[in-house]
Amino acid sequence: MPVYNWENLEETKITPSRTTAIGKTVKTDYMLLQKIVYEEDRGDGKGAGAQPHSHPEEQIVMPIEGTMKVRIKDEWFEVGPGDIIVLPANVEHEQVVEDRLVWLNVKLRVPGHSVFDGGWLPGSKKDWGKLIDHYKEMDKKYKGSAPWDRE
Length: 151
Known about the structure:
Low-confidence stretches: none
Distance between the termini: 37 Å
Structural class: mainly beta
Strand order of the largest sheet: 1-2-3-10-5-8
Number of domains: 1
Radius of gyration: 16 Å
CATH architecture: Sandwich
């Protein structure tokens, strides 16, 4: 379906192994777009948000209501509406929210990797590595050819 409405989508737990957040997800063949609400303790007594973690896909986070503190590696940032956070693949990060935060989350969908527990199906991690190597080769070949790629 090409058109969705947030009100009509099912609400689910997002990543129960790292957060108590709830949200709604639009899944395409290759991407995920999620509207997520952080308002309950993340499970370790430090407030709402997500416990320290990393994942194999890049992530773009856009707060649309409320503020949060996000740690990327060893550096903390305070962000809110209008800010865009770019999280590289395989880099540890966490989020802490004092009250309530609503945000949009964009990720590649990684076949064989569970967004719920971070686990891999047998062989899928190796296949993902092959895909990333192929993507890097394509990036070298076509670098600078797209308007947003030019320096």
